[in-house]
Description:
Layout: E1 10-13, E2 16-19, H1 20-57, H2 63-84, H3 88-95
Antiparallel strand pairs: 1-2
Amino acid sequence: MPMHRRRHFGVAIPGKRVTLARSTHKMRIEMNSSLSGVLFGLAAFASWGFLPVYWKQMQAAQPFEILCHRIVWSCIFVFVILCVQKRGKEVVQVSGLLPSGKG
Length: 103
């Protein structure tokens, strides 16, 4: 029996060997990506719907205050990500405060 027609834990297709586990996994990935696409679409529509309410609430804040908040919260967010990834030494080396060991 030729190799391409042999049944091996799956379905025999002339010229190809596809296992059921791989095809089922591919179907799951396609269904998950379709579902995530729909959820991302709904989230986009919801955020566009709530955006006017957000801008109405932000009228009382000064632009400089908003800018300061964005800078501070961005720094905090990046700091948390760097701590989770345990990349503090790399940041210190790039900043020049710690010798890199190369010379």
